[in-house]
Amino acid sequence: MNLIYLSELQHHTLQQAISRFTRSQNISIGQGAYISSQHEPEQLYFRYTRERYTQVGLDLAYYFDLEDAFDEMKIEKVFGYSFIHLSGGDTFRFLKAIKERALLPRLLKYVESGGVVIGVSAGAMIMTSSIDSAVLCGDHNTVELSDFSGLGLGDFLIAPHADKSETECRDALKIANEHGLPIYLCSDDDAIVISGHEHIIIGCPLLVQPSLVRV
What we know:
Blueprint lengths: L1 E5 L4 H15 L5 E6 L7 H12 L3 E7 L6 H7 L4 E4 L4 H10 L3 H9 L3 E5 L1 H5 L30 E3 L6 H14 L3 E3 L5 E5 L2 E5 L3 E3 L7
Parallel strand pairs: 1-5, 2-3, 2-4, 4-5, 6-7
Antiparallel strand pairs: 1-8, 7-10, 8-9
């Protein structure tokens, strides 16, 4: 699997994550497609994200909107790019739109065929098996999403924008116990890279391990 989980688009963190990934795989990443978490009328966040990628030598070439003027031909174009960026935003709203468009299995197939997926904040949580951890960074299920299961990539959950406080760790432990999976609490300077079978940790994410044994 070729995956990058980011809490925020900090320049130095993104640069280090891309550099470590390309060194590990001995490959270069070509053009990418951006999947927006919600409709962006002015595409302001897309343009900001594209600028960040340009600064590290990558071309985020294509904007795709799940909510406005959805076109099946446009989504097919997304999967033709060498990497896909899953944006930040409202995690519950983003996952609901992905499921309504039946994109989870197609994203999984893309990863299995060697495609690179880079998720930031909400996008990073959706890459894991559940977005239950979204409550740790203040997201609320205002869209009445009933199924919180994500892509199931990696053997952990993730909580972005973490302050790693005692209260947050206690709340994270409850979620870790419910799922039987560890949770990485990631500040905005932290990132996790999965390159093949190698896990690369950038920064100092705090790993909260489940304390209960699931039988």
